[in-house]
User: Fold these one by one.
Assistant:
Number 1:
Amino acid sequence: MINVGIAGIGFMGMIHYLAYQKLKGVKVAAICEQDRTRLNGDWRTIKGNFGPAGKKMDLAGVERHDQLDEMLANPKLDMIDICLPPAAHAKVAIAALKAGKHVFCEKPIALTPADAKLMVKTANRAGKQLMIGHVLPFFPEFAFAYEAVTSGKYGKLLGGHFKRIISDPQWLKDFYDPQKVGGPMLDLHVHDAHFIRLLCGMPQAVFSSGRMRGEVAEYFTSQFIFPDGRLVVSAVGGIIQQQGRGFCAGFEIHLERATLLYDFAVIDGKPEVNMPLTLLTADGKVVRPKMKSSDPVDSFANELTEAVSTVRSGKPSKLLDGELARDAEILCEKQTASIRTGRAVRV
């Protein structure tokens, strides 16, 4: 049995708690939260943009802490699941690793590449797994794309375009604070930066243009430049001021013998699949593969299954590895630098 302690019971902490209930051989043995109401199991104030609404939870058998040091000292715990605000990721992850715990931490890995590198270094020194919750590869459409690319079934990857745009999250007061959340680049686009790094490797340079809001990028397009000039990869991300489209994401991925298309949006509060996952094959066929589940919590359960398997095996995860997340952080920093300077920036 893998015993997990969750640090932070907000929306993502609740989603992780629910996802763990779907897993075998793992138990949420402890939680840490300073809000006494939530610590006592009343989660009705928790709200998010997917999944179930918060409710009163039966936390019988779950140890409850209001101080992190107390939970980290708990000898029963094998892994700490960090669902705290991004500004706390590095400090808490490093403390947990030094306490001899494996760490699963929500994205982004940290707010600066320097902190991300220190987290990876600490994990290596401690001999513990550092896993970062980039959940995108566990959503059915992205999982299909990952398999299509890495299997070589449709030939070599030629490139692709990725998008991830939201309406202005006016309810998040610290969203544009580089010291607390990091804005759209680190809260939103980092998903696609990670997926691009996963599929294509690390580019040698990036060129981005866009608008800044204070110190963070607000809306931007990026070209990722690779040694093989035939690998053409781009992305668009950021926020728009109109609230009618709350979210949109998708991709067009080019392979030698196939093209993958996907486009999803939330319009007027309702999900719309503008283009279900579609496979265009070299022989002219149009195929729409059947996806397994539309419940986002299932994708998080798959992600956490990978995390638990990584702890059991002691081998880094190809999808959750801290070094991949560190590289995504570096890409985001370089893209912001390119916007500021108006020039391509070496990675």
Number 2:
Amino acid sequence: MKIIFTLLFLVLLTHPTQLHAQSTDSAKTQGKDKTLVSVPVTVSDRAGHYIPGLKKQDFTIYEDGIKQNVAFFATFDEPLNIALLLDTSGSTTDSLEKIKSAARDFIGLLNPSDQCLIATFNSQIKILNEFSSDQQTLNASLQKVQTAEQDGTVLHNAVEQIAQRSFADVKGRKVIVLLSDGKDFGSSITKNQLLNQLEESDVLIYTILYKTGEGFDNLIITPDGFVKETAVKKETKKKVPKKKKGYSVWVPAAAGVPTDDEIEIRQRKANIEAVNVLREMSDTTAGRIYFSDTPQLKEIFKKVAGELRQQYRLGYHSKDAANDTAVHEITVKVERAGAVVRTRGKFRAKQL
């Protein structure tokens, strides 16, 4: 009997090491001098059709122009870990029920092995449920979503918290699906600070720009999120009122009060910045930006779910100097004629 127990003990000592090696796939699996960098990759042809069935040997990764060994490879069959992050600031009041309905449809598209976290943000950030595969739990969380009564939209803080904390111990494919108008009021972290942190992260961010107010209708935006042109308000000659007989009183405008034209210019700048910040978050993490009003939301969510099923994930070991805060360029090439690759373009080993 002692001999049997001894043999079992030896088996247990050797096998867990092998299993751990197969499942080690985090963005930063630290060794003494190496880091495993996770690289999500989407491959399509020039017509935009996704290319399935690629193998590990079809991919080549370069860091700063130097070829790297592909140490990890996963197809799009790998389960998803999705954080659904909803902007519930006052601008969503009239459309909240339709937003929730579209989100329910999105949750219904998840596979049983996928997990979803649901969170909202306005002046505060609320985690309605941790990662779960249970549809009842997820739908019950959506029922709790309410529009904020207080002013404030801490967009930057919300993305940072989800990317850095909620995904901290999660392995596998990590995705934030963010629905927002892109405007931030009250965050303690700036846009540039957030983007610097996202360069270190292996979390994909899919942003859905939810148009609020009339200003967005005056912007011409390309499908990849660049503002090409803004509509300029045509100047009209003001009619000079006829002078009336008698005395008139001239009341000067209050100092510091903006004119209507100044308000319009500020609003246009805020809308352009909102588009830019969502596009930059998506570009930095190899995600994608979508534009939507309420009637289109369900279709947009379907597109996001469909694309997430068409991605590969690669990993390579990068040298990790103790004080390496430099940004490293990542390039992925596919040995397939006409292949178009979208991937994470940068990696930073340590935060500035």
Number 3:
Amino acid sequence: MHGNDSRVIVHLSDLHFGREDRRVVRGLRDAVWNLAPHVIAVSGDFTQRARRAQFRRARGFLDSLPTPRLLVPGNHDVPLFNLAARLIRPLGGYTTYITRDLEPMLTDGPVWIAGINTTRPWKWKSGRVDPATLERVRDSIRHAPEGSIKVLVAHHPFDAPDGRPVATEALSALTAAGVDVFLTGHLHTSYTGHTAHRYNAAGRTAVVVEAGTATSTRLRAESNAFNVLRISASEITVEVHAWENDAFRLRSAQQFSRLADGWSGANASAD
């Protein structure tokens, strides 16, 4: 269905089982299958309150989707009110029901994709990329296939709206290390751009893609949405598919072309 030199990545985030809209869940499953993706990336918040029943529902939904899937946790997958569990085994439910792999990585054609855990139990809402994680990503990129487009998945945005220094420094360091695309969630707002909009990341530009909430009823100024990335060796198109009239429909698209120093973007028309 796709050319051998291109890949389709479906990017979901903030499912929030426990506060999900079941009609949207069914519509999302159908939409994902119709897209026939090569990879599904989910950037965290599988549950609303990290409860076992919520993880089981999230697990059932994941099992209804195509494979392979690359998954990372979000802050809502860490217990909020159970302080003992939050401090002793913060990702116990996640590793029991979703995946034990907190450092996922796969290569598919021209795409190398990896995930990192940005949750921090003592700062429940905020995220962080620690020095060890930065070094691990740098080392992994050095061993990635030459010329591959490198995609990093995390829950918390690196391109933070409030300009937090930790986020800015991590974004710059990872872009300099060779990351081409950042896939994140957390804010329940869709956004696509590149690092040159606000930062000079060591002379390189990377594509920044933030997803809205795919299935939650906790909406913030937009309907449920998810992203589709169509990636070839020289181009990336990022589509936003939004819930409208009982189905997910293409709302917008933006195209990026590969240059010697990163990526240059231009708007593309929606259907």
